[in-house]
Amino acid sequence: MPVYNGAEHVxxxxxxxxxxxxxxxxxxxxxxxxxxxxxEILQQCGxxxxxxxxxxxxxxxxxxxxxxxxxxxxxxxxxxxxDDRCQPRRLEKQVxxxxxxPSLGVCGSWIRKFGAENFVxxxxxxxxxxxxxxxxxxxxxxxxxxxVRRSLLAKHGLRFDVSYYPTExxxxxxxxxxxxxxDNVPEVLLxxxxxxxxxxxxxxxxxxxxxxxxxxxxxxxxxxxxxxATTRFHRDLGMSRIPASKEAVSRAESWLLSxxxxxxxxxxxxxxxxxxxxxxxxxxxxxxASSVGTWLIENFYRSELTRLCGVTARRxxxxxxxxxxxxxxxxxxxK
Length: 335
Known about the structure:
The protein is an alpha/beta fold. The protein folds into two domains: 2-194, Spore Coat Polysaccharide Biosynthesis Protein SpsA, Chain A; 222-325, no CATH class. It is 47% helix and 15% strand. The chain contains 14 helices and nine strands. It has helices at residues 10-18, 38-44, 61-71, 90-100, 128-134, 150-155, 168-176, 201-221, 228-238, 246-266, 271-288, 294-302, 304-308, 313-325, and strands at residues 2-3, 27-31, 50-54, 76-78, 85-86, 104-115, 120-122, 147-149, 181-194. The strands form two sheets. Strands 4, 5, 6, 7, 8 and 9 form a six-stranded mixed β-sheet that branches. Strands 1-2-3 form a three-stranded parallel β-sheet, with helices on both faces. Helix 8 (201-221) crosses helix 9 (228-238). The termini are far apart. The relative contact order is 0.10.
């Protein structure tokens, strides 16, 4: 667990780790040259499982994480942020999942956001083939929820790349999933705090740029030699934020179909899993573009992409209702 000036929440985060039902672990905390009361708080905890490494100068997150991997002694290494909270059985359930699935090198979980937002669950993809396919669009793991096999990271020379801040985790998973499987426990095992200190506007802009850079690398593996504008559009698809226009929806449909065709030639991803993932992003983006009106419903229902991805009748109905709420369709009142 890296921490920098985390005095406000670090004690709560520590307590959530120390109260785990699985208690056979070393709790390695990297104090990244904190200048607030963090060092004193860490010193006050006398639990023998805690080992604190204090940096004399600030290394920042990616370097602090690499230091943690170097210093870790266990085979399984769980990530944690100093302002989040583990559910009591987090470690127990992730250890069990990794033990039962020896092909897995990384295991995350679903998370629950709290703090500045009301409690909102974020469900990440489940199943190794879907996790890999999802990574073509966005990070398939909530970073502070992951547990990794340290030996596999070392075997494949996998470390966090500082040049990809603040998406160094996504970049690592994009390489790691070429070497071994990853999965998520389909259960909320981490409470993820959202607050004003989490990310600045500049950080968000940089995240978009770096994530698009990762997208470009993955698209190249699929044989899609993209320019900057296309890669940015793909990034927008992965964030479900394409413009609400006929032109953008048509472009999204064409682009997503081209990904399916390219994979049929390259076989980079499991075909069924890729179609499921693409179907999810197709549906989400159309839902967010429901202000386009009735044309959207007609196009979505008739789309070859909708058919190829096996979009369910329920989702078709949800899109219909979303357009209705926008006032484009008048439903007959029931007397």
